[in-house]
Amino acid sequence: MRFPCMGRAMAACLLAAPLSGCSGCGSHAAPEGVEAGAAAPSGSAASGGWLNRRDPALNPAAPRGTSMYPIPKRDPDWDLDSSDPARDYARRYAFFTRRYGASLDCAIFGASQPAGKQRSVEVKNAPGCPGAGAVRDVFLVDVAGDRLTVDDKATRDPMGLWPDGSSPEGPPADRVQEILLMRDWKSPLKDAVARQSLVPVRVQGYGRGTYPVISVAGWHGAVQRGAPPEALQPLAEDLCRGNAGMPLGLFMAMDRTTLLRFRCPATTVWETL
What is the pLDDT of residues 180-195, one digit of tens each? Predict the structure, then answer.
């Protein structure tokens, strides 16, 4: 399943997004130019500095010619929680579209349940929050089809767009957006990367603009290919904080076959693409 990038909305969606210039996005009512839960123009966790670059040559899914560098067999996916991908899908949608505000502190996402060809995910107001215990939403999720809707549009809040500008009931944007000028990348995640003495050269937004993948000039210090989780723990904690607790990935710029994934709060996995 391919997740292209988002449009101007992606800028806001990638709270932790570390790129500049993207392709491939999502779809609803996050403020224009901002992807919910992403780096916003202000540089806060909810702002972003995404550029609307759409040069086909920069699209990682474009036909690849010969190269002196390793060539990946596929693009990164957005690493949904394998224990309940439908629940994770709905949770990320709510977070990055700011459906319940700046955080999900007052929302409890139940385990997904069968609902025909979809999975239903019930969301209730958390204890101690206004309307505690009340059902806020019932999402109907088709992870394989990359679609999401609600059970009753007449009573639920209108559906917002993903950070890439795409509708949750339609396909993702056709390109993965990316940021190429690091001065245009405004995000706490950028600061976290810098604290690890890593040099970002590109940021891309996969998963409808919700999953930032940062390319760095090279591995540095404890961040070496194949490094064990314990050596990467401080890095993982810092990057997860910088990305508002949402997952992300790192590439070494010259090798897009090896992806270092961060599954927050703070675990790491090396993956070969």
Answer: 999 989 889 999 999 9
